[in-house]
Write the structure tokens for this entry.
Amino acid sequence: MSATRVRVEAKGLSHRYGHRRTHIHELAFAFDGPGAVAVTGPNGSGKSTLLRIMAGLLRASAGTFELQVEGVSLKPGARRLALGLATPELSFYEEFSATENLVFAAQAHGLAAPAAAAAAALERVGLSPRANDLVAAYSSGMKQRLRLAFAMLHEPAVLLLDEPGSHLDDAGRAVVRSVVEHQASRGLVFIATNDPLERALAPREVSLDPAAREVTHA
Amino acid sequence: MLKVWAILMKECRSEWRTRYGLNAAILFAVTSLTAVTFAAGRIPDRPDILAALLWLTLLFAALSSMSHAFVREMEGRTMLLLRLVASPTEIAVGKLCFNLLFLVVVEAVTIPLFLLLTGAPSVRWSAFLGILGLGTVSLAASSTLVGAVIAQTRSRGALFAGVSLPLLLPVLAAGVAGTLAQWEGSEIAPYVKLLTAYAVALLGMSLLLYDHLWED
């Protein structure tokens, strides 16, 4: 397995919702892959917002975020294939099975073998035995595993995981660890978390805590 | 195109599973046509009323369902999934294709029933289908555009009616007048031109707008 040459860089990144400021203020960081990065900070500091900006879903109020894959800088609209996002805000079509949801996503991503990609992703998160059940019948832990499968379905260069261990049991947390280790060996993975165990998976950190703003450069 | 096709297939499968819109649309069309026929009987000598009845039936049958194309994604919190796999334009074009297909299915049920129950005079098929086809494209384009615009607002239901009205009035007026003209044997070219221009303008405007609609 060869690692993808990937680099992310933020310069003067700031975001506010109307008049309400987040802790994303004049944020600057640069990381080269492969590896894992933790995004930490208190509740409401803007961890999820930062991941949404990185995913191209949200336009920052100020500053720039750049994603380079194999030396090519990708515009926000072209980042979908290079980024995978798993966040608690992500929901699936409840009238479809997990396989059908992922096959649809794989087809929309333009993958060559959607069914095989969906099966492989579900296998990696341990959902294969329930792959053909409707998502409506899934527990919250199973839905969280499905989010992880969705995020890595297309083998993105950068994986963005927002509170990846939420709703998961010990086996599920082992899946998160495995996903992070796999991604950290081939690209970049960002983990937005305040969980010490998940924090320990990433040797580098972007802190949104204003009391201890510390940015570790690669 | 692959993404648009994937979204269209997803919409078809979802509709087939849930029958969210189709049952309601066809039920509305059948009950309204039956009620009018019971009240007024067969009225082949009133093509003016027939033309209005046809378009009103199609409009309300279709709008009750098509307005929900984006609202369902917002309320089911699946819009994020869509945005992570496709651009806003690809999503909206996929929805537009589904709305077009949906209208064609509703019309395939409604129009034979309409002709049968109301005793409408014989239609000039090429003119009738031409007006119907152009009106269908305009209806689908306007409801998709309005659905996309209001998707992130709070009072979506009320807004849909308010925002749709000015967009739909020209389609309704030209559709009714064109349908009446083909029954009366008069010229339909002005209505064809108007509906064509309107459909092209709506589609063009939509394609320009979609990519800017969901920027937070």
Summary: The two ends of chain B are 26 Å apart (CA to CA). The longest helix of chain B spans residues 88-118. The mean pLDDT of chain B is 88.
